[in-house]
Amino acid sequence: MIVQGLFALLLAPSGNAGPGMGLLLLQLGLIFGLLYFLILRPQRRQQEQHKKLLETLQRGDQIVTSGGIVGEVVHLKDSEVTIRSGEAKLVVLRGNIASIVKRAVEAKAS
Fold it and tell me: Which domain holds residue 39?
């Protein structure tokens, strides 16, 4: 529907036949505005929340990685986190941590 309207505007004869280029620019501006508010802005907000989550990571937190591995944080470095999952210790990149299931403070309070 929108594509047909754009083609009609592009193929319209020039002159006093209709709104022409002004309406096309207005429609393109509206499309870019919608893309910004529906896709780009929420995605940026989600990235900021994930960054804050990674900054607040501490020893004893129970985490889930993006691969689905559940473990407890044993050691923290700048870009790497060592976790204990069952009997194994794994080194995971900090960016691959998807969520924190339990905070260390909650575990100590119980």
Answer: 2-52
Burial 88-104 (b: 16+ CB within 10 A, else e): eeeebeeeebeebeeeb
Number of domains in the chain: 2
Q: Which amino acid is at 64?
A: V
Q: At which residue do the structure tokens 């689905």 appear?
A: 68
pLDDT tens-digit map of 71-104: 999 999 989 999 999 999 999 999 999 999 988 7
Cα 39 from chain centroid? 10
Confidence (pLDDT) at 107 = 45
Are 41 and 69 found together in one domain?
A: no
The strands making up 62-65's β-sheet, listed across from edge to edge, are 88-93, 80-85, 70-76, 62-65, 97-102
Type of residue numbered 43: Q
- Assess contact for 82 and 93: CB atoms under 8 A: no
- Rounded to two decimals, the pTM is 0.64
